[in-house]
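User: Predict the complex.
Assistant: Input components as received:
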Amino acid sequence: MTATQESQQYAHLIAPGHSACMGCGELLAARLVLQAVGPNVIIVQATGCMEVTTTKYPESAWEVPWIHSLFDNVGSVGAGIEMALRAMGKEGSAKVIVQGGDGALADIGFGPLSGMWERGHDVMTVCYDNEAYMNTGVQRSGLTPFAARTSTSPPGKQSVGNWLPKKDLVAIALGHGLPYVATSSPAYPRDLMRKAKKAAETKGPSYLQLHIPCPLGWGFAVSDTISIGKLAVQVGLYPIVEYENGELVSWMRVPSRRPTVEEYLSKQVRFRHLSGDKAKDEVARIQAIADANIARFKLDQPPPRTPKPTAE
Amino acid sequence: MPAGRILEGSAAVAHAVRLCRPHVVAAYPITPQTHIVENIAQMWADGQIGCEFTNVESEFAAASVVLGASAAGARAYTASSSQGILLMTEVLYNISGLRLPVMLTCVNRSISAPLNIWNDQQDSISVRDSGWIQFYAEDPQEALDLHIVAFKIAEDHRVLLPAMVCIDGFLLTHCYEPVEIPEQQAVDKFLPARQPLHPLDPQKPVTLGAYADPSYYMEHRYIVNSAMVSSAGVIAEVFSGFTATFGRTLHPFVEQYRMEGARQALVAMGSIASVAKDAVDERRERGEPVGLVRIVTFRPFVADQVAAALAGVERVAVLEKAISVGAPAPLVTEVRSALYGRSDAVVSGFVIGLGGRDVTTASIHRVLERLQGPPGDNLFVDLDPELIGDLAPALEREWQTA
């Protein structure tokens, strides 16, 4: 089997016919996760776009066991399933994957997620971080980046848009002592699939945070999902990193002549209010965030090992 | 013969849980429930219970853990009280909607504010619409027995609904009484391993918890309600099976106490029935035709059984440890509804024992005296007029007899 065939053999596990938007980065990423991990999984899905676009009764796009309970409890539901498998002598028969958006995991379901991580359940967590509550119509979440327009953080005379920084859920995951923590993006499918496989193979809790471009929520053409996703990484606003046992083992290098954050911001309606002179300070602050990321993770230096050393 | 031992109510419940062989137990402390999960934790530490046991970070998580475990096909158990039940509420509805036969002990306690750790039944009454079967125990022995039948009823494929055994906090959980603990073998025979209908399993993938638009939602709710209504038949069957197997009478829906020829009846749930029975005895000794109808099964509410038990009664006093602020209290509303068109009985609603206020036989006698007056609702028993200040005159009017 060629590498391509191998990567495609589980492409059907999320069947076509779901109702996600054209250009949806989230369904693309979820399909890549399952392609990498295969059919021996139990998916625990938080309420959100992925849930409503794939399981409108009586249809389901999922060809793997899948459960949706609530918006705010995937961590605990996943923990319960993992315990049940052990108690029933079915340990190892399925990898439990809990997944949801940034709202479900960083905000409303954060407590259960933290509890599940702290207790060390053998559960993989995937956060599809599209940086706002998209299913309810683009409201601010804890992972919405600084200055982004959402319907609950609109720019105006007194506001630059989201006036708060993005919560560092990756650092929080590391703070729980998780053996495997990584970020990736569907703009880099091979990187995403490698990490999904690794997260699934990790014994104990693992965390994968995926940056998910959302054409509708961010305001860009549906054909630009991949290019926007790449730009976020290339400018340094979304560091693609990988930690094993708390140690930074790989990162995706930014190009030596990396684009400015303006190039990324200018392509999205959510940042349009930052164009022109009046928002110079905000743009400078966003550039400083990108620069700080690059310094923190050495994103301008070659990583020790990674199959794709430079974001292209 | 099963072993009879002096046990704390909480320990009796823990033994019941152990005998039911759950796969997964999720524990979170809250007074007065805590002794139950502490007992189970010790049994687990000592290798006496072969479950997966976990300490979670909240009651919300506890309910969600048992939800997940049950969806995977396991027998799952948790326990809580008061604020914990309220924090679980979102999950409780979800568990029943998913048709998962989870078992929970609700150790009844009041709801804040003001903060109060003592007994009433506002917690479980507040989740009466959540789709959980609810049983109320009168004493530790019945609490133990009800757990065994509750698992069996919940897991029955004709039911597939979660079940809650409600036991009065402190009054039952912290009281020591002789309790017969059934033999493991007998419980295993009565309650075999769960046969899950659609467990999460990669060999046979299912989608659980799909979303239903307006074309499907109502039918789903109809089916859930219909499962609850028809669970009454399974309850009758399992309770009588229990009595036959273990030799102890379990009253499936209501217990009638000295109701023969009764003209006045008390209606109550839980441990208050013991006090009420003493008061009934005293009245009967004086030749007064007074009896008690104790509701064991509050959900499903089997109106026929309640109406039959109250047939021929002229005045009914419903004693309730919960209120519905701004309306008649929940149990009296349902008792009245059960009697509507079938009886001319005058039904009054008494609120009693909130937040651990002692209920004595004298309290019950005051109720029976007030029952001779005009009918009323939200008649608070044993209020201190001085503490309610300007409202005291209204209280006096409410208690005036005709």
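The first helix of chain A runs from residue 3 to 8.
Let me know if you want any component modeled separately.
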